[in-house]
């Protein structure tokens, strides 16, 4: 329903015009033009309101994507990949984080497409609509102003014609009055006649002008209501319909942007499901076992310590006795075993009840047995005293040793192999750089204009020096690795004996409290007691005696606490030999003591010590 013009009565009425639905029907009343002005303004306001809705939606998407990325960044590993756990549960979680990061990227794509294809397009179209609407309304107002101007000209000519007619009628009345008056003079009559003629002529001219203005106004009015105004309304209708079509297109684009990313989002969700399926509890358990496998040998069986060897049995005893030795000496198979430093799996070794001392024997065997017990006690005291630095080292924390001897064998082997691989990669890089520099040098020598070959020599020398350092480091680590693998091989060859009287190997601790097991130290007999040694063992201020000397094969910085700085080819005194942990305690000629790596020195033991042995 649109306001239309009744052409017969020239009065604006409201009527249905189903015959002309494609254009705004024309109408006369000014308020209908104002209604269309309000309607088109409402359409533009509605379009901008929808654009504001899209803007807020894309801001929500941007905020959501940003929060998702911050969440992923918060829970992503901040350590290097080598330090991260390799458990399937962790790897699956990191895969989920990556998929979530991709999902956040798709939300950003949605926000970007909405901003470009919907919001930006709506704002540009809104500006175009405003300009077009303003143009059409200005044309309508101009047409209305021109019609009003024509009406004013017609109305002025009409009023002038009316006025001239009245003046002509007055002149005619005056002339007829004087013409019928017998007393009027001829000159008065002629004057009135000429005045009547003038007024009549002016009325005719005003009539003609009024007719022309009326005809012009009627023509302009027809053009206004049949051509200009319908065209302006048609333009406004086209503009409003295009606005409606644009809204429908943006609605579709709004949905298409979301539907376009659904396949990628589905892949992200499928990746999360796949990551969840990749969680393998058995593989994680195997990794835990592999990571914490120490390579230590389980502790051996406790030996049976027979204290009844020297008890004299009589024939009246109704018990079954153990055959006694004729010489009165204890059987070597039943000597007291030592397992004081054995490393136990779940903590320290449980304390055993103290043995009951045997009754004194007056025979020579009893005296000899007492001497052996005294020697055994002295040996135990010496062992405890030699471990005091180890306890101090435990208190201050084990140093980060270069040869990783503070680690269990299996972990040490893995770390050394990893270090060798890293050094090999660095060596390969240096070799590639050296080859590249040599090729560049050859090019410079063949084409001197490209550069000076001598300028590359310092860099080549530096690269070769780095290569030598890396080779030295690789050789040193390979030596330690072979030492670890050799110990593990020798440990694997040993089998526990089923003899209850067989002595288990003595466990030892390193200078910093780590467990070691040296096969060369397993079956050594305790040293013979020295009359003056018992007093010296408790004198902490007296230095330990030198049991050999050594020569430094390499320089050692001694940066860790408890270690000693030494230079290459420096001669040192050995005061405590390596107990299997890779460290030897030495003393300088100035009296300074400390630990140095055993592989860094060439050791020569004294003849009066436990054996003249050379370690390289």
Automatic annotation (TrEMBL):
| Domain F-BAR, chain residue ranges per copy | 21-284
- Which residues does the UniProt record annotate as the domain REM-1? 406-483
Biased amino acid composition, Acidic residues: 533-543
Q: Where is the SH3 domain?
A: 545-606
Its annotated compartments are: Cell membrane; Cytoplasm, Cell cortex; Cytoplasm, Cytoskeleton
Task: Output the Gene Ontology terms for molecular function.
Answer: lipid binding
- CC annotations in GO: cell cortex; cytoskeleton; plasma membrane
Q: Which InterPro entries match?
A: AH/BAR_dom_sf, F_BAR_dom, FCH_dom, HR1_CIP4_FNBP1L, HR1_rho-bd, HR1_TOCA, SH3-like_dom_sf, SH3_domain
| Protein family membership | Belongs to the FNBP1 family.
Supply the name of the protein. Transducer of Cdc42-dependent actin assembly protein 1
Report the source organism.
Answer: Electrophorus electricus (Electric eel)
